[in-house]
Amino acid sequence: MAVDYTVIVVYLAGMLAMGWWGMRRAKSKSEFLVAGRRLGPAMYSGTMAAIVLGGASTIGGVGLGYQYGLSGAWMVFTIGLGLLALSVFFSARIARLKVYTVSEMLDLRYGGRAGVISGVVMWAYTLMLAVTSTIAYATIFDVLFDMNRTLAIVLGGSIVVAYSTLGGMWSITLTDMVQFVVKTVGVLLLLLPIAVIKAGGFSEMKAKLPTEYFDPLGIGGETIFTYVLIYTFGMLIGQDIWQRVFTARSDKTAKWGGTVAGTYCLVYALAGAVIGTAAKVLYPKLPSTDTAFATIVKDELPVGVRGLVLAAALAAVMSTSSGALIACATVANNDIWSKLRGAMKRDGEEHDEVKGNRVFILIMGVAVICTAVALNNVVEALTVAYNLLVGGLLVPILGGLLWKRGTAQGALASVVVGGLAVIGLMATQGILANEPVYYGLLSSLAAYVVVSLATPATDAAVLAAWRERLAGRVAAEPLSEPAPVHQ
After folding, report:
1. d(CA 458, CA 359)
2. Is the pTM of this model over 0.90?
3. What span, in angstroms and rounded, lies between the C-alpha atoms of 170 and 479?
4. Taking the alpha carbons of 400, 401, 402, 404 in that order, is the dihedral positive or negative?
5. Among the ranges 228-232, 267-271, 456-460, which has the highest mean pLDDT value?
6. Helix, strand, or coil here: 217?
7. What is the spatial distance between Cα 398 and Cα 238, in angstroms, rounded to a whole number?
8. Which residue in 13, 73, 168, 243 is a FRET match for 176, CA 20 to 30 A apart?
9. Contacts of 162 (CB under 8 A, 6+ apart)
């Protein structure tokens, strides 16, 4: 294992080095939070694919393939569909808004009264998303070093917190590009063909497994529908995803770069399901589906390659973890704390934006690590995150983009009613039940439409300013220093 350990250590050291480089680059709020809005198509596509394909997509995707066969690809497939829909239909408009958070968009659209409550909901979502990624370190470090669960979470989480705090989005962008390359090589080019060959090829896999393992709809229509509601729609409105859209140098980069990333997700989804199906042939009686990825890597790959593939798993986890962490800190600082600070601020008081955001990343990072240590179930934590996001925020966000009659009162009612419905149904029906997201979304839609129609239309001046933003006729923030465009 010495070679494998060396590969992993070099990889982790590289992540920290890029965090240090990013610290020297991030001199303004725009540089720190959205990489100066300067990413070209190549970097944008790679970093977007990296953030949406995390531990759940890699370890969880292989686990679903182990349990259901090729139809286990549907979870990650719906993530890719969501990213494609976002990129084709909404990303250009989102990029032209020149904001930092989803709640800022709501404030612009509805007139400054919808952001605080939506910020709290978005903060809860990004926090839980970061927690689920951080929990996944335990599985990987257990395979690598037979490490205690708590120690594994603290070690992996601390590295992500360190490079994210140092350089913000510049560090995360650089590390995500490396992580994108590592998991492309490790999962698609190495693990996928080796797993299929070890399992005897597709003909042998079909001979040894039930026919439902090769049924594209074998996982069940209701499950696929729930995945669409949670993940496809979740991709449209998550702060972690929007914050990457904000990094694009132009609306065309956001549209076409995101389309490439979404297509990559579809390929990754199928690869994970095939690897899981091969693992079912090789290890038909594993105690847990979540161990399928680690088992096939540990037992079937040669020395060195094993280390690279485990580094790919770490890359997948770290990219989502760091993206969710900076999103969580951005929402906490810009949408919640800044409003409280604004109410208490004395005239003439100055505030260092970069330092303030660094402090919030550090605070949120510690909170994420502590929460991850306390929780055990990744699926439940991820379900809570997406149920809150879709049930509470999907309607007012898409309504604001698509329906000019929507009002601030309707948006607030939608967030509150949908969020409370989701929380109440999760408490009574169970966290993993389908009812919370179904009825939460319906109640959110009903509240939005009814209250919007019952209240005065949004002020014409607010809508005019909103249309100016959507048209891209608002100048971007001044940059701290000129810099070359990154491709």
Report:
1. 36
2. no
3. 14
4. positive
5. 267-271
6. coil
7. 12
8. 73
9. 16, 19
